[in-house]
Specification:
Chain lengths: 458, 193
């Protein structure tokens, strides 16, 4: 009955202290999000508005992307279109080769993770530097992000301290976060000053103006696009919003949902290349247009990548981002992974208790849990249904269709209450791992009802 | 060009039902009894500072008192006499590295989140981010309640860049411990006058 997720989660859970810290820290972020949400009387209206704007936009993407690219080109931006990850990566490399660029400094972008851009560029001799502190830590450590907004949430300060001792020659044994952040500031300042090209992701692309909006707390996207003369924007085609006015709705929701801040420190609006420089947009499909035709999962295209569904998810908090086999973890990652490749990523669909908390915090109201439920219903068609569960379901079906046998079984169920622990909790009882069985009642409701023991409330 | 056509065609092919655009103006954004007071409160909450300059106070004296250690001070504002150089006269933005303090003009303050809108009004936008400390001068009558109001008013200017700044640069990427001063300014003061 174990999936890759449960096995990986078991490893995560073996460090009880770390697991508790991870769980409590993310719950704290969720609570900060709640305080922000409750401070605005119009919060639910905002979510509904965001949902409607996104549903409108994704179902008019043909029109809006055309408008967006025309406006951008009129502003002097060079617009590229990539059908898949390979095309995206090649476009970036061609731009860099055309400029004879050797070093590119990047701000955070989940799309470039999706495309495995860094490995590709590095294999072609380009020096790629991640500049978000968390991403830089992971790049130096050779790891992937375990959360889309808090990428290094799985690491302890001592691990970062040791890494920086080795890579940045910081003091031995000093793992003070301020000290380490200052060391990274100095190190990355030098990278910003010596980079040939700056690359950013994109939080929002505005169709009516051709603008790209990038939100960060560190200011790394801004440093990376203020020193080099060339700015490359890598954007998924679903990032479009129709108007500048609609930005108000999303910038109000994004940071509040993500980290419980009223706003990110920097909300930067890029319209034109810097004087004497270049600006490139790479608009990437990579499977997104197909999702548009999938009625059951179309809503994933509304996602603004805030990570709120991860922070609230009881399974994510207690199993960590690396337990999931897709590079985006948590409820949105379960769905995006299945859309990418159902057979490969079906292990993640069990990482959900169907508590629906994700649906309730999602700022754009994606039906995350409903989608996970639907994937589970279809697992058999991918040949991925759990054989043990199938056997159990068949057994239960047999039982439920035979009331006589069912009542007979129920009558003797309370005997389990008195059985020795080892007989109930052993290798045969998968369900009993990490759980205690509820006590069976002495008498079933049916028999109480029949003997008149159930009295209607007056 | 053909990639664009193919992608747009693929989108068209996959869209089965088109949803209407809602009327954003129907959304009522929060309104505060005193937006200026709220702006100051939130600016402090996000790790920055904001204060109203009294009529008898001189902005240059104020800056000198609050940033006594600043040696290289950048500003293109005429009233800032304590500036040691005008960043608009610098040819290469890389030379802005090492600036202790920059004093720049903001256009709109937003009460709900402490954001100040700055349409690029300097030669190199890098000065907003590379200076160790940042002072933003803002007309105190230009504080609005929320982002909806702000977006109705913003302008971009010729340079084609604009940024909302809310407090100092920060990160919590190491164990969620908040550290101010990641890559940008380690401190931001908004002077309202």
């Amino acid at each position: 009955m174990s999936t890759k997720h449960t096995k990986a989660a078991e490893r995560f859970l073996s460090d009880k202290q770390q697991e508790t810290w991870h769980n409590e820290t993310l719950w704290f972020v969720r609570e900060k999000r709640d305080r922000m949400a409750f401070s605005l009387p119009e919060w639910e209206d905002l979510r509904e508005m965001a949902n409607k704007i996104k549903m409108h936009t994704i179902t008019h993407l043909d029109k809006y992307l055309d408008q967006f690219s025309e406006k951008a080109e009129a502003n002097g931006v060079i617009v590229h279109w990539a059908k898949d990850a390979a095309e995206h990566n090649q476009i970036v490399l061609d731009i860099l080769h055309g400029l004879n660029a050797k070093k590119m400094v990047k701000s955070k972008s989940m799309l470039t993770e999706e495309c495995h851009l860094n490995d590709f560029l590095i294999s072609h001799g380009i020096d790629v530097i991640e500049s978000d502190l968390g991403e830089r830590i992971l790049q130096l450590k050779g790891e992937m992000p375990s959360h889309i907004v808090l990428p290094a949430i799985h690491l302890k300060r001592q691990q970062v301290g040791e890494l920086f001792e080795d890579k940045l020659h910081t003091e031995k044994g000093n793992s003070d976060p301020t000290y380490l952040t200052r060391a990274a500031r100095q190190h990355l300042r030098n990278e910003f000053l010596t980079a040939d090209v700056g690359m950013t992701g994109c939080n929002f692309g505005v169709a009516e103006t051709g603008d790209v909006v990038v939100c960060t707390n560190e200011g790394n996207a801004d440093m990376g696009t203020s020193m080099p003369k060339v700015h490359i924007v890598s954007m998924g085609l679903e990032k479009i919003v129709p108007t500048v006015q609609s930005l108000g709705v999303f910038t109000r929701l994004l940071a509040r949902s993500a980290t419980g801040q009223p706003s990110t420190t920097y909300t930067s609006h890029f319209r034109k290349p810097v004087d004497g420089g270049q600006m490139h947009y790479i608009i990437v499909d990579n499977g997104r247009s197909d999702i548009l035709g999938n009625k059951e999962h179309i809503q994933t295209l509304k996602c603004i990548r805030c990570g709120a569904c991860m922070n609230t998810c009881p399974v994510y908090r207690r199993s960590g981002g690396f337990s999931y086999t897709y590079f985006i973890p948590g409820p949105i990652g379960i769905n995006l992974g299945m859309l990418r490749h159902p057979k490969e990523y079906s292990d993640n669909v069990s990482a959900c208790s169907l508590c629906y908390s994700c649906n309730n915090v999602c700022p754009v109201k994606i039906d995350l849990a409903d989608q996970i439920y639907r994937w589970r219903q279809n697992l058999d068609s991918y040949g991925k249904a759990d054989p043990l569960k199938k056997t159990m379901s068949a057994g239960l079906k047999f039982l439920f269709e035979r009331p006589g046998l069912y009542n007979f079984a129920l009558k003797f169920a309370p005997l389990v209450n008195h059985m020795p622990h080892f007989m109930v909790y052993n290798g045969l009882n998968e369900w009993g791992k990490g759980r205690e069985l509820p006590r069976f009642a002495k008498e079933s409701f049916t028999s109480m009802w029949k003997s008149g023991k159930v009295k209607p409330k007056k | 060009m053909s990639n664009k056509k193919d992608i747009l065609y693929s989108l068209q092919r996959n869209i089965s039902e088109r949803y209407d655009m809602p009327d954003i103006d129907l959304l009522e954004g929060i309104v505060y009894p005193d937006p200026l007071e709220k702006f100051i409160e939130v600016s402090k909450a996000v790790g920055g500072d904001a204060l109203v300059l009294k009529p008898e106070e001189d902005i240059n004296e104020f800056i000198k008192t609050h940033y006594p250690e600043a040696k290289t001070i950048a500003s293109n504002l005429r009233e800032i006499e304590v500036a040691t150089f005008n960043p608009d006269e610098v040819e290469d933005p890389h030379s802005l590295n090492g600036t202790d303090l920059a004093i720049v003009q903001g256009e709109i303050g937003v009460a709900e989140n402490g954001c100040v809108w700055i349409p690029q009004n300097v030669k190199h936008k890098g000065i907003y981010f590379i200076a160790e400390y940042l002072v933003i001068v803002l007309d105190k009558t230009k504080v609005v309640n929320n982002m909806h109001e702000a977006y109705r008013q913003i302008n971009f200017g010729e340079k084609g860049f604009g940024v909302f700044i809310s407090g100092p640069s920060k990160t919590a990427d190491i164990e969620q411990a908040l550290v101010v001063g990641a890559h940008g300014a380690k401190g931001v003061t908004v002077i309202l006058k």
